[in-house]
Amino acid sequence: MSDKRSPSRSTIGRRILAAFAAVLALFGAALAVELVTLHKIAGAESEVDRFDHAKHAGHLAAAQVREQYIHQAHTLIEFGDGHLAHYRAVATVTRQSITSLRGHVDSPADIELVDQIARLAEENDREFRELVVPAIARGDRGAVADLGEKLEEVVDRVVALNGQLNANLEARSMTARERAEQLRDQSLVWTIVCFGLAIAAAAGLGWWLRRTIVGRVESLRRGARRVGVGDLDARIELHGHDELADLAESFNQMAASLAREQTALVRAHRLASIGQVAAGVAHELNNPLTVILGYTKLLRAVPGVHADELRIIDDEARLCQQIVQELLDLARPHRLAVERVDLALLAREAIDRLADTGALRERHVQLLAPGPVVVSADAGKLRQVIANVVLNAAEATTSTGTIIIDARATADQATLTVTDDGSGMSPEVRDQVFEPFFTTKAHGTGLGLAIAHAIVEAHGGRLSIASSGGAGTLVSLQLPTLLREVSPP
Ligand SMILES: Nc1ncnc2c1ncn2[C@@H]1O[C@H](COP(=O)(O)OP(=O)(O)O)[C@@H](O)[C@H]1O
Ligand SMILES: [Mg+2]
After folding, report:
1. Do 472 and 421 form a contact (C-beta atoms < 8 A)?
2. Domain spanning 7-211 has what CATH number?
3. 20 to 30 A Cα–Cα from 163, which one of 145, 194, 362, 480?
4. How far is the CA of 240 from the centre of ligand 1 (A)?
């Protein structure tokens, strides 16, 4: 089988791969969208967390400023320095909580608010330490009362600033929460779309596989089953350019070659069984025929009596002997005495012998051979084949007909054709000419072409006939120039 199946024809494999890749890509895209969105949602939620922590830190800082004021008020009520050490510890915690609050905010507006809170807490602490504590030490109750009110005002302002900060943070937290919600909705839509497309693509792929592969495999299976039950004419019609079409083509070639082999096998078996019977009969007939011919010869030597009848007996007995000889030829295994011979020369010898016997009459026989056509073959048997074919041509043409013999060779094959302008043959006759005993002639044996065919096959060659009724016949003999294997018929 010719190797025209190039790798580029592995289309089914490529198509399946591409289809699976598309489905996988869609599932992959769905997964990627899901992962990216989850990542974004996590980001938005962590922002919400951060704002909650900042709000909490703001409340803590405001409460601490109030705590700082409560300890200042404690000192004012006590009007002594007994509570000062405790106050200092609280003031330190207040500073720390404001520093911590600063770490939780990032927008310039919020940073500005935290700075204001820090400045107010610092100012409050400084006024307490630098103005109130010395006034208490001096026992100046009037100044202390004024300063106490001022200190309380700071607390109110810090609470107000924290409220503003809280509102800012709450607004941003809300935005982040809404964004997370939006992302969740979007992710749901995209996931549904991607998975929906992937499922549709998978369903489409399944349908396509069924149509292009399962259905076609079913055709192959039907064809194989028909051949399996002996229908060697079964052929698979698969169109397209893919592996299955290639397979169908190979299958058809296999079925055709199987049919050819089977025909050849049947023919060989038939020849073998005909040969066995024929050889036995021919052998037994040979002896009495020789005796008849011997006595006929003796009687014909005596002149006068029944000369015509004796000639007829002699002719018919010789024809019988020829039939016997041909039968033996057909039955005997063709052991070839192979030598290097020139087909053109053999053709010339065959023509000359036929001419000598007068078989060619007035027919115009032309031998065309541009040069020697050398083959390894059995000279005697090939000459017999050529003589048989040329004699058939002579018998099919009128007594002035034309027979052209052409012999030529290529590097590995030699071809000899015999063309005549005779009666030709119908397709039915054409199909049976190699059958033993098939003849259309009144005195034919029907063995000439059967024997020629067997001899040519024993040489590993081919004998073929092209003809149409009334338009002459072309018999073509093809032989390998180097005989590799010699098989008995
Ligand atoms: N050149 C030819 N032209 C027409 N018919 C032919 C030719 N050669 C063979 N045939 C046909 O093939 C038949 C078988 O030929 P063959 O085997 O030589 O047997 P026979 O010559 O004894 O009939 C012939 O009877 C004839 O019908
Ligand atoms: Mg013949």
Report:
1. yes
2. 1.20.120
3. 145
4. 45
2 falls in which pLDDT band (50, 70, 90)?
very low
Q: Which of 268, 485, 279 is nearest to 376 (CA)?
A: 485
Collapse the DSSP code of 189 into the 3-class scheme (helix H, G, I; strand E, B; otherwise coil) and give the result: helix
Residue 393's Cβ-side half-sphere holds a number of Cα atoms within 13 Å equal to 32
A 10 A CB-CB count for 189 gives 10
- Summarised one tens digit per residue, pLDDT across range 375-404 is 999 999 999 999 999 999 999 999 889 999
Per-residue pLDDT of 18-61, as tens digits, reads: 888 888 888 888 788 888 888 999 998 999 999 999 999 999 99
Helix (H, G, I), strand (E, B) or coil at 311: helix
* Number of the ligand closest to the Cα of 322: 1
3-state secondary structure 115-154: HHHHHHHHHHHHHHHHHHHHHHHHCCHHHHHHHHHHHHHH
Q: Which band of pLDDT confidence, cut at 50, 70 and 90, is reported for residue 483?
A: low
pLDDT of residue 289: 92
Protein residues with CB under 6 Å of any ligand 1 atom: 388, 392-393, 396, 420, 422-425, 429, 433, 438-441, 444-450, 473
Q: Residue 418: in which H helix or E strand, if any?
A: strand 413-420
User: 481 alpha carbon to ligand 2 midpoint, in Å?
Assistant: 26
Domain 336-489 indexed as CATH 3.30.565.10? yes
Task: Give the CA diameter of the chain.
Answer: 194
pLDDT in tens, 273-284: 877 787 788 888
With beta carbons less than 8 A apart as the criterion, state whether 260 and 271 touch: no
Residue nearest to ligand 1 atom 11, measured at CA: 433
DSSP string, 35-90: HHHHHHHHHHHHHHHHHHHHHHHHHHHHHHHHHHHHHHHHHHHHTSSTTHHHHHHH
CA of 439 to the centre of ligand 1 (A): 6
Using alpha carbons only, give the angle 183, 184, 186 rounded to the nearest 5 degrees. Answer: 60
Q: Which ligand is nearest to the CA of 449?
A: 1
Q: Do domains 7-211 and 336-489 have the same CATH topology?
A: no
DSSP 371: S
